[in-house]
């Protein structure tokens, strides 16, 4: 079986969802990415990626209750699946192997 | 209708309504300005549209339903309205003195043309939108693109079907006079109206 490939932004999104645990929905995922990576993904790019990840079985989503501050619209919460977790772990292990022995300014190696 | 509702309606054309509502809810919550809002909506709309057009089996089923619904509806109307034309045609051939009655055949012919060029596309759009919510527009785009490609190929090859069929004596078999049920504008309007009905009800398309 071919290993699941992940784009760079897909990894970022998966990691943000993992960090947020039960509170991962569009707004919080975007904020987490902005806080951790200092990049500001457009909502359109984020939702397109989330939909693609869900289609590939790497995340699942469920709808919460509608809230007034969202104009009566529900939140869509995301959760990383076992397949998504394995995929992101495999890619990160590859990065760690590549990084070992390389000294980058401001990057600590485990 | 505020711009968020319009955005939700636009997105619900290419994705389930709950998902469109959640995405717009996020934009409401993050107090997006009009530029961010519409850029996001356009991107999500195109992303979802292309993903549906290029991929999943559900869209293929919707596209097949488009073709089958059009064919069945056209066949149904033809069966009902063509019969009187054929009967009158046979009568006139047998008894030429009944020729004035032949104008009635024209009436049925007109009804058939209206049914196929107006009623069939309208009903097809509505039926597919009801059966495949969120997939109807990608399926429509896929069929339209295929149709355009086919007509371009057939035009380039210059297949002489037209000239062969034009030589046939029976007017109803003349290729260029067969009514065409493919009316994209009517299909599109009926699909959008179905979607609008769901939005007004506030329910999620089943």
What does this structure look like?
The complex is a heterodimer of chains A (110) and B (206). Chain A is an alpha+beta fold and 110 residues long. Chain A contains four helices and two strands; from the N terminus they run αααββα. Chain A has helices at residues 8-20, 26-37, 43-55, 82-99, and strands at residues 59-67, 73-80. Chain A is globular. Chain A starts with 7 loop residues before the first helix and ends in an 11-residue tail after the last helix. The model of chain A has no long low-confidence stretch (mean pLDDT 89). The relative contact order of chain B is 0.13. The model of chain B is unreliable at 171-175 (pLDDT under 50). Chain B is mostly helical and 206 residues long. The two termini of chain B are 24 Å apart. The longest helix of chain B is centred in the middle third of the chain and has 38 residues, at 57-94. Chain B has helices at residues 3-11, 17-29, 34-54, 57-94, 102-131, 136-157, 161-166, 184-201.
What is the radius of gyration of chain A computed over CA atoms, rounded to a whole number of angstroms? 15 Å
Mean model confidence by pLDDT of chain B:
75
User: What is the chain-wise order of helices and strands of chain B?
Assistant: HHHHHHHH
What is the averaged pLDDT score of chain A? 89
In DSSP terms (H or I, runs of 4 or more residues), the helix count of chain A works out at: 4
Percent of residues of chain B in beta strands?
Answer: under 5%
- Helical residue percent of chain B? over 70%
Largest interface: A-B, 23 and 28 residues
Oligomerization: heterodimer
